[in-house]
Amino acid sequence: MMMTDSLDYIRQNVRAIWQELPPSVELVAAAKQQTPEKIMAAIEAGVKIIGENYVQEALAAYQIIGQRVSWSFIGHLQKNKIKKAVEIFDIIETVDSIELAEEINRRAAARGKVMPVLLEVNSGREPQKFGVFPEKVEELARSIVQLPGLKLSGLMTMGPAEGDPEAARPYFRLTRQLFDYLQKLNLPGANIHILSMGMTNSYRVAIEEGATRVRLGTRIFGPRQ
Ligand SMILES: *Cc1c(COP(=O)(O)O)cnc(C)c1O
User: Fold this and answer.
1) Could you tell which of 10, 121, 215, 225 is best to mutate to test the pocket of ligand 1, judged by most ligand atoms within 8 Å of the CB?
2) Is 131 in the pocket of ligand 1 (CB under 6 A)?
3) Domains of the chain from N-terminus onward
4) Does the pTM exceed 0.85?
5) Using a 6 Å cutoff on CB, does residue 200 contact ligand 1?
6) Exposed, middle or buried: residue 21 (CB in 10 Å: 0-12, 13-18, 19+)?
7) Which atom of ligand 1 lies closest to the CA of 215?
8) pLDDT tens series, the chain, 225 aa
9) Three-state secondary structure along the chain?
10) Which atom of ligand 1 is closest in space to residue 32's alpha carbon?
């Protein structure tokens, strides 16, 4: 494919997604491994939120694209990357321990910033995955709201990545129930309004189960290498 064709392909994909998404659901373009040029094509077609898994990769794109979009961290955040992450990201979707929350708090406070965060739920209780187990969500949420440099804004979950999207439904439903429960707790200082779940193979199911934000990579940019 020629470059212009591949950029056109991306713009067309994004326009097709807009036709499909309910207006209340936010689209995050999951941009890992994509060039700034490809990310720009998605932005031209209306993408407003870029999701990044790696701080280094995000920095390269951020230096070119800047603050015309908002930047969402969706990967596993290493301790030595937190300072940079707090500088460039508008939200961190993957907080799953009090240690990580406290370090983000420390770095945010040093910058005079309040960092919106989502709590990542390991809804499938898969040992190899990041995220807190469902029964630990309330405890971590109650700790996070004590930290003035963080704004607890909702939940994120991955769910099974491959296979039948229906297989993800129970995990999305469980995460939705946790989200509703957290909202009802009315934790002081929290603003529980984002439920981030669903990727290319599962976003339709995630929306049916109440996602307010989906994270799409392949559906926008095509298969990764
Ligand atoms: C890569 C990635 C996505 C998007 O995955 P696709 O299947 O390509 O849509 C969503 N969320 C996270 C956390 C990711 O790492």
Assistant:
1) 215
2) no
3) 3-221 (3.20.20.10)
4) yes
5) yes
6) middle
7) 10
8) 556 799 999 999 999 999 999 999 999 999 999 999 999 999 999 999 999 999 999 999 999 999 999 999 999 999 999 999 999 999 999 999 999 999 999 999 999 999 999 999 999 999 889 999 999 999 999 999 999 999 999 999 998 666 899 999 999 999 999 999 999 999 999 999 999 999 999 999 999 999 999 999 999 999 998
9) CCHHHHHHHHHHHHHHHHHHCCCCCEEEEECCCCCHHHHHHHHHCCCCEEEECCHHHHHHHHHHHHHHCEEEECCCCCHHHHHHHHHHCCEEEEECCHHHHHHHHHHHHHHCCCEEEEEEECCCCCCCCCCECHHHHHHHHHHHCCCCCEEEEEEEECCCCCCCHHHHHHHHHHHHHHHHHHHHHCCCCCCCCEEECCCCCCHHHHHHCCCCEEEECHHHHCCCC
10) 1
Region for 92 from its dihedrals, namely left if φ exceeds 0, alpha if ψ lies in -120 to 50, beta otherwise: beta
Question: Which residue out of 74, 92, 199 has the highest number of ligand 1 atoms within 8 Å of its CB and is therefore the one to mutate?
Answer: 199
Please name the residue that has the structure tokens 């990044």.
52
Q: How big is the chain, counted in residues?
A: 225
Structure tokens at 217: 């990579």
Ligand 1 centroid to Cα of residue 12, in Å, is: 19
